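About this split. The held-out portion is used to measure sequence recovery: a designer receives only the structure tokens and must propose an amino acid at every position. Recovery is the fraction of positions where the proposal matches the reference. Here is one held-out target exactly as it appears in the evaluation file.
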């Protein structure tokens, strides 16, 4: 059976500026066995080329732009599929600007069809301009719904979701959020993975560290999902969610042997996953928003 992997980056491959132990060996095993894979990130600031260079500096070699699919590419794919001759006013950085440019979507600051909000620094002047465009009838798109993004273990920065929320508040318009967990992100990533694989894939598995984006999106797209505990999710909080990952791994290192041999790893039978907490159902079932103990990325659908 041919299996392909969609792999989240932050919290799965690296944290801050350090690779997660075993990441190099895992990616090497994927390459050595010809297993199709694609890195999937909600960060719309970098281009795929930037990400390949970033991973190279961290110690993962042999990757190129084709191994990455970002929420910026997803937003550009969305516009080029649904409204290819549209115009946009963009708040964002290189990743989203380049992706739109490559699909020949024109910038127009007077009366654009869309205001596109991505990751990165903005100014009150730009927000005011975007507000005016929306007042004149532009529709509001955001590359991803993340309200904040990790900078380090103690530091966060505002995300595209927060910028979109500002414009939603000032104009009364609702944003449409691309990126994870939007099904369009998973649909297009799956298609890109199939193109990379050159053969039909029988199974596509999402590997991620965040329940609200990686695991929820995979579940809703009908994919298997593997949650790794090397990032934002604690084992004891998994049971709080109404959707569940297919498997829970300590880290991506647990999968390396399995990719090499094709046999299910018995490391997943580790006692850490058989305790009373694993799979325990939480007390709240209506919607994710009630499970938040502190602010964290909020899917657009729960607003
Ligand atoms: Mg992550």
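Reference sequence for scoring:
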């Amino acid at each position: 059976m041919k299996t392909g992997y969609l792999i989240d980056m932050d919290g799965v491959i690296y944290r801050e500026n350090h690779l997660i132990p075993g990441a190099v060996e895992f990616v090497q095993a994927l390459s050595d066995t010809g297993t199709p894979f694609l890195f999937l990130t909600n960060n719309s600031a970098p281009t795929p080329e930037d990400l390949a260079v970033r991973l190279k500096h961290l110690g993962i070699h042999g990757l190129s732009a084709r191994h990455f699919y970002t929420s910026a590419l997803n937003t550009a794919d969305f516009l080029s599929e649904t409204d290819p001759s549209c115009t946009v006013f963009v708040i964002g950085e290189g990743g989203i600007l380049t992706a739109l440019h490559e699909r020949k979507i024109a910038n127009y600051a007077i009366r654009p069809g869309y205001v596109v909000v991505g990751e990165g620094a903005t100014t009150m002047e730009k927000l005011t301009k975007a507000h005016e465009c929306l007042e004149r009838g532009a529709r509001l798109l955001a590359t991803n719904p993340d309200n904040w993004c990790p900078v380090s273990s103690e530091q966060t920065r505002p995300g595209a979701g927060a910028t979109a929320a500002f414009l939603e508040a000032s104009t009364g318009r609702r944003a449409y959020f691309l990126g994870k967990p939007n099904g369009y992100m998973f649909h297009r990533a799956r298609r890109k993975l199939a193109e990379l694989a050159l053969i039909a894939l029988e199974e596509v598995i999402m590997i991620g560290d965040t329940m609200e984006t990686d695991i929820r999106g995979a579940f809703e797209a009908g994919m298997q999902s593997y949650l790794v505990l090397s990032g934002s999710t604690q084992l004891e909080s998994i049971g709080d969610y109404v959707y569940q990952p297919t498997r829970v791994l300590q880290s991506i290192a647990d999968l390396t042997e399995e990719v090499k041999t094709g046999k299910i790893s018995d490391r997943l039978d580790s006692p850490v996953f058989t305790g009373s907490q694993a799979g325990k159902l939480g007390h709240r079932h209506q919607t994710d928003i009630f499970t938040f103990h502190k602010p964290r990325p909020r899917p657009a659908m729960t607003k």
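Annotator remark: The first strand starts at residue 3 and ends at 8.
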